[in-house]
Amino acid sequence: MPQSNVTVIEGTKLANQTPSASSLTSVKIDPQQQRERDAQARKILNEEMTRIDQRLLELKKQWNHGEVAKLANETAQSAAYLQRVEKLKIEMQRTQADLAGVQREIARLP
């Protein structure tokens, strides 16, 4: 195989680039203001956790250890009942995941 010369051309820089993340971190925030922001974030997350926890309690009450109450038009093996039970189970799992996520966010706060 014959060897050939390779030419490398450097790209051009864009004129309207946004500032990089490192240049944005140079902005200083007053420590008191940051504490207030952290306290506000904690308050919001605690309120969210309380709301999610209440919803989870309602779902567990409906779940009744797997013995979901049947509606008037449902039997124990009807498709509508089984579908409703499955939806309730999925919603409980999702709510538990939401609660765990909020708890992780609270743990990350200073």
Question: If you had to describe this structure to a student in words, what would you say it looks like?
Answer:
- With 110 residues, the protein is mainly alpha-helical.
- The protein has helices at 21-24, 31-63, 79-108.
- Helix 2 (31-63) packs antiparallel against helix 3.
- The radius of gyration is 27 Å and the shape is flat.
Labels describing this entry:
mainly alpha; 61% helix; 0% strand
Poorly predicted parts? none
Give the mean pLDDT. Answer: 85
Largest beta-sheet characterization: none
Shape: flat
| Helix/strand order | HHH
- Given the helix and strand composition, which structural class is it? mainly alpha
Helix count, DSSP H or I runs of 4 or more residues: 3
Whole-number total of structural domains: 1
Radius of gyration: 27 Å
Q: Could you estimate the helical fraction of the residues in percent? A: 55-70%
Q: What fraction of the residues are assigned to beta strands by DSSP?
A: under 5%
Alpha carbon gap, first and last residue:
64 Å
How is the secondary structure organized here?
Layout: H1 21-24, H2 31-63, H3 79-108
Helix pairs in contact: 2-3
In a few lines, what is going on in this structure?
The chain is an all-alpha fold and 110 residues long.
